[in-house]
Amino acid sequence: TCRVVVLVSGAGSNLAALLAAHGDPAYGARVVGVVSDKPAAGGLTLARTAGVPTAVVAPQDFADRPAWDVALAESIGVFHPDLVVCAGFMRIIGSPTLERFAPRILNTHPALLPSFPGAHGVRDALAYGVRVTGCTVHLLDAGVDTGPIVAQGVVGVEPDDDEASLHERIKAVERELLVRTVGEVARGGLRVEGRRVVVG
Ligand code: GAR
Asked: Is the whole-model pTM more than 0.95?
């Protein structure tokens, strides 16, 4: 079974979907640890309820950014993951984690990359006036949402959408896409050929 560590900063609805899937041995992946930068993240509560060990690596507990980056890599490493999944982790991940775990780090983003990277993908897509947006699961690299794309899902924008309503519909597609993609990667592995990712 593929050992998965999930990084969360927020509510953890994507984590919840992974936790709902991982009980089935046929799924091929098991969440073995959840790491957050925020002590109050809802995702931590979800993990504890599911009996999954957690760790908090809060920037305020470290002298500087490089020290936090090293601590993040170490706290992920404690769980010996085969795959790391950023599911609403709202911080840029530095080289200690990348050097140790890439390319086996997935991120999920609430827009169709390369459009609307960054912390406000839903808001930015809405403000631009696109009629179609969605979500992207991609490999993490040193840029902001620039890594090779693994999977995407499409969501139409409705005339009366606001950021919250659009994000809700994106999240419904996103959690299915993430669960499917993590399972496929867990069972089949992944290969990177330039910008193309081959799963299975
Ligand atoms: C998700 O929509 C995820 O794509 C987004 O935060 C949400 C987390 O929801 N991530 C980013 O915007 C990263 N730039 P969740 O905590 O309920 O899973």
From this structure: yes
